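Today's session is about reading a structure prediction critically. Students often jump straight to the picture, but the first step is always the sequence itself: look for stretches that repeat, for charged clusters, for runs of hydrophobic residues. Only then move on to the predicted structure, which in these notes is written as discrete structure tokens rather than atom positions. Here is the chain we will use throughout the hour.
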Amino acid sequence: MHKKYGPIVRINPFELHIEDSSYWDELYTSNKEYERYAWMSGRFGANTTTSSTVKSDLHSIRRAPLNPMFSKRSITKFEPIVHEKVELLSKGIARYDVSGSVLSLNSAFNAFAGDVIASYCFGFSYNQLESADFHDNFHPAYEAVRKLAHFSLQFPMVYIVLGLCPRSLLKLLTPNIYKMFVLQKQCQDLQGKIKNIIDGHEKNRVDSGHPTIFNELLQSNLPPQEKTVRRLGSEAQQMIGAGVETVAWALTTTVFHLLNNPSKLQKLRNELDKAIPDPAVLPNSLVLEKLPYLAACAKEGVRLSTGVSVRLPRVSPKKPMKYRNWVIPPGTPVSMTTLDVLRDEEIFTDSTSFIPERWLDNPKTSRGDSLSRYYVPFGKGPRMCIGINLAYVELHLALAMLFRRFKFELYETDISDVEIAHDFFVPQPKLSTKGMRVKVKFADS
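Below is the predicted structure for this chain, in token form.
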């Protein structure tokens, strides 16, 4: 539509969409009073989470106690737990060198991200990294929810109708929808965990000595109605979903492109060999983030993984918006799409290719402004992804471990297994994909 009608188009009777990377900051960063589009906030059956909150003032209230928990300082305190999960990931991968079996890295990365975010939320994890073939992870349930999201947006009663169906019938007729209710049961378990915290039956800190997110929420100055088991249970579901899906997919995308580009992989290995003399002892993330090529590989992998693929509408409730010569009336939803910016050829030359070098040496666009201005996989502004610091700690530590300790060979996997083919809120490759599969050897073998 944009190629035919220009940078601003009406995509339905109510909403406008803009394809102009230079307008991103204006829509998402400059005005804290912009609200979410209410119609799109309940697509997952709940609109009381921080990320789904429509009103900007209520969003600020709900997000305020979370901000300190996701600061770089707080994440640094939590890092020993991430190291523990990286070591469990390494131990699980090592089994495939011994057995010679094919490893699904998608499953491994989903288990890793799931155990990390659950530990930070509650101080415990589901030990997904210790399950056979990393099979017990959150991904199938969240995938089922995401695939239902567009339908439920049009027909929100679907959650009520499905909730009335016997679980045994759902499992028989629609196993993917059944997985959604498995997820709901997991979140009910999380709600029970919250209830224990509320009742004072849980420790305030996990063994590492760091606060857990939900303890901090309960001890914050949030009003009582914001601390109910129901709302915090929904918050847990959303937070774990966000913490698993995006990190796991970013790792999958980054690792694939490195394995598919041997010269770039060797450049990364050379840097890691020098920075990590003993592969059994990983440095902390403050050291790793200063390795220029590792940081560039992570950043480029995140760019290609996109973050969310869905459009992101904002509404100015009282004042008109302005785009070029167009004046947009108050109350009109206006959206942009992350993928349009991250694949903008005028900004990211050869945008579908994995080029970590584009992030080295303070890069500029052809127009002379900072390339980082258009790095938007985490969003920008008051509603940007709160987990960016945790995500980079996970990425840097996992990538350093993977390529300092192991060698991988792609197995029946190609670019179509990581390239976006569907928008299910986050990017989805072809439906027939079997994931990114590899053969594993120790790096020194």
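Discussion point for the tutorial: The CA atoms of residues 279 and 404 lie 6 Å apart.
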